[in-house]
UniProtKB/TrEMBL annotation:
InterPro entries: DUF318, UPF0718_permease
UniProt keyword list: Cell membrane, Membrane, Transmembrane, Transmembrane helix
Record flagged with keyword Protein biosynthesis: no
Localization, UniProt: Cell membrane
Top-rank taxon: Bacteria
PANTHER family: PERMEASE RV2963-RELATED
GO CC annotations, alphabetized: plasma membrane
Lineage of source species: Bacteria, Bacillati, Bacillota, Bacilli, Bacillales
Protein family per UniProt: Belongs to the UPF0718 family.
Transmembrane portions of the chain: 36-54, 74-97, 103-125, 132-151, 200-219, 231-251, 263-286, 295-314
Protein name according to UniProt: Permease
Pfam families listed in its UniProt record: ArsP_1
Topological relation to the membrane, as annotated: Multi-pass membrane protein
């Protein structure tokens, strides 16, 4: 229905041909904008309602005192159900450290949360099917777990700024979570929808706009030549290009969709997406207020190499 509506706007209202480059680009933009905004609003509401039973303080207590490997796995999985971009995970990162959660475990959450979240997974499923969505989730979680374990083994606690360990959290309110009514949960979930849409809509629109241009105008043979499976260096180059860019998974998905339609290898496209969402200059700037350059270097190096490895794996098996 949304596809037909977008087609009607392009052909009947705007007078464009669906066979023209401009018509294809405009149709892509209208169709993806409508589909993604509706899907995003629905999923954020549902997941915010479920998440109302698991406040941050309870999450911190859940992770504190766990065995190292168990803690890394749990932190990575908690990142999946936390719809945060790379920058907004930093305050939670500080809170975990202050609460006594081990450094490596905290990094597993920091890596997993922006790369993989339930909203992006639903959108990946809607666009590409469960196979790609589940493989993307699995690879993101694996990167988060093993990168966190590796950082934990390095014993770099002295690379965290000293003041972080002296920050005092605001105590959880006396009223238990169970006392909140379903109407209050629904109201808070709707407020969260408005808040998240208000913060990410510009990235969604930019991502869809870039995707629309690629969809209508990018030369297919050129992209296949330089970003297809046959170019061995395509994956690391895509990762390096993605690192300085800043986007969340939702905003980057339309770009990935357009690249895949043009013949870009899936591992290359997803490495680009992971680099954009897990590693960004704004995140590094924020992290520098919390951790020292040596630890930032380990973080960037480990995650970048892991993303490149996952990209090659995807290209080999798909």
């Amino acid at each position: 229905m949304i596809y037909r509506f977008a087609e009607w706007l392009v052909v009947d209202l705007f007078g464009l041909s669906m066979d023209s480059r401009l018509g294809q680009s405009v149709h892509f933009f209208i169709y993806d904008t409508t589909k993604i905004i509706l899907l995003l609003a629905t999923m954020v509401f549902v997941i915010s309602y479920i998440r109302s039973f698991f406040p941050p303080e309870r999450t911190k207590r859940f992770l504190t005192g766990k065995n190292e490997y168990v803690g890394n796995t749990l932190a990575a999985l908690l990142g999946v159900v936390s719809p945060f971009c790379s920058c907004s995970t930093v305050p939670i990162f500080i809170g975990f450290l202050e609460a006594g959660v081990p450094l490596g475990v905290t990094f597993s959450f920091l890596i997993s949360s922006p790369i993989v979240n339930e909203v992006s997974l639903v959108m990946l499923f809607g666009l590409f099917g469960w196979k790609i969505a589940l493989l993307y989730m699995f690879s993101g979680v694996v990167i988060a777990i093993f990168a966190g374990i590796f950082i934990g083994k390095l014993k770099l606690e002295n690379q965290v700024e000293e003041y972080v360990y002296h920050i005092q959290s605001i105590p959880e309110e006396a009223a238990t979570i169970e006392m909140i009514t379903w109407k209050e949960r629904a109201r808070d979930s709707w407020d969260n929808v408005k808040d998240i849409l208000g913060r990410v809509w510009i990235y969604v629109m930019i991502g869809i706009g870039i995707g629309a241009v690629i969809h209508g105008y990018a030369p297919e043979d050129l992209l296949v030549r330089y970003a297809g499976k046959d170019n061995f260096f395509a994956v690391p180059i895509a990762t390096l290009i993605g690192v300085p860019l800043y986007s969340n998974a939702v905003g980057s998905i339309p770009v990935i969709e357009a690249l895949l339609e043009k013949g870009v290898a899936i591992g290359t496209a997803l490495s680009f997406m992971m680099a954009m969402t897990a590693l960004s200059l704004p995140e590094v700037i924020l992290l520098r207020k919390v951790i020292k350059p040596k630890l930032i270097g380990y973080f960037l190096g480990i995650v970048s190499l892991s993303i490149v490895g996952i990209g090659y794996l995807f290209n080999a098996i798909l």
